Task: structure prediction
Amino acid sequence: MKSVERGKLVRSLRHESRRLRLLVLVIGFFLVTLTFVVVSKPDALLFNLNGRLSVDQAPRSLLIRQRVDADDGRSSDTLASASGDPKVVDDDTAGEEANANANARDVIALSLRFTAGTSEEEERMLSSEPEQRKRAVEATASEILGGEDDEGRKSQQEGHKEHQQQKLTLPTVSNYTIHDATDGTDNGKQEDAEFKLTPDVDQRNGRDRSHQAALDNVEWYKPLCDFSNFRANICEMRGNIRIHPNGSLVIYMEPISSSSKRNEQWKIKPYPRKGDELCLNHITEVTVKSSKVAPECSKYHDVPAVIFALTGYTGNLFHDFTDVLVPLFTTASEFNGEVQFLITDMAIWWTRKYAVVFEKLTKYPLIDFNKDNEVHCFKHAIVGLHAYMEFTIDPLKAPHNYSMVDFNRFMRRTYSLPRDAVTALGEIPKTRPRLLIISRQRTRMFLNLKEIVAMAEEIGYDVVVEEANVNSNVAHFAKVVNSVDVMMGVHGAGLTNCVFLPHSAILIQIVPWGALDGICRIDFGYPAEQMGLRYKHYSIGVHESSLTEQYPLDHEIFRNPLAFHKNGFEFVRQTFMDTQNVRLDCNRFRTILLEALDQLNQ
Result:
């Protein structure tokens, strides 16, 4: 009987001993995990770049978010619009919660893998303790929230409901709805054997193994690229990214712990003229792919990368802005200079021409993508630029809701221009409003320029005449434009200088003969209005066109100019733009200048 009781006592002591050992293991795991999270700075793991102001301190507004696939199997509600642009969904609380939960699970898994001396058996034992695991999750989430910039988060979430301000917001891939790749996953695939396969550890520049290992295990759940926009393809990724310019490769390194293989590969020409093969034929093609092998890092960067091209239509002032400067501002200004540009098809003269713009957008030397032999490692990379309609920014889709008002302000500050807005006439006694006439010397010239100047001066303007061409000094021209109240010119690249006009100034576009009103409004009318300028549209009559010297008045070019548009834009350009000049009817045009005077008085 005593032996039976003694046996029970021994078993009870053994059971209590197991419980004590388990409790010690749980407490030890919790302390080690908490130490790792604090030391490793979880904000560096999240790579949250939201909450930064633009270079010109543009006013912050609510970030547009998309519905993304969550772990609960819910599919996106976003549908492509008729133009191919995705629909944007604002204030997606459910999507934010799903992202927050997914990231919290990732950080817990990361902590488990780096807990020293924790065996698989001990992990299973820990996972059987729901209360302890719950506490670990809460502690980790608390550390993440503590690592964020409170002021930046409040600014980003301005306009949200009060309870939403306390949520953990994770960065999204972009302000586009992301779609899975539908083709080309094996297109032009390069063999991994080209590279020396190395462990995913960069020991150069004093980088320690734990930091690199943390990168290896931060997984990007979205597709790498979005080809849904009608004007520009763009790829974006966060995690362990290797950029190998010599191989025209951008590699997203899959986490070591990942059991699935993404098998994503995309070909992208990072210049926003999608579908224009004549233009894109000269652009370097970049391959974006996911992989578990890559060349060894030779240079490590702590800032995001933006890869874009310069060759194309640059050199024409309008294309300088609509193809590069406006999209580059839209894509990179949120980083407040903390971004590295890698430029394919570099044009040194072009980067020198706009050097002050680059100095405002990045604090780092430009990298010539085609001539660089380094293997660059980044935590965040964007290939391509956010671009929308011609010479515009769509604030409903742009990061941080940037708009052309922000771009106009950015250009004025970049070139240190003194006038932010026009002054109403009469506020400064004996001051005449200044009128700038953009002249041209090859096509679409004013044939009666002296007569136009005399008429404008007669009704009260102080007139300035300047020619804008590829050789114009940008800084000088910007100061001239900023000094005027009204700018006028025939449709052409010179009107692009309206980006330097003060707010509420007036832009007058003279439209050549040829049913070109729609094209002209798209290129300059709508952009001017979106910049906060006042826009006036003047379409010339038949008698104001030099085409009357080339064709009889009963020719179809005068009776039905729209019929010529069926032959394509190149034909229209050659017919109505390259061979036409303008002789303004000063009596008729006087009305437009008088209306502008009235607006300046308001």
In short: The two ends are 109 Å apart (CA to CA). The domain at 415-600 is CATH 3.40.50 (Rossmann fold).
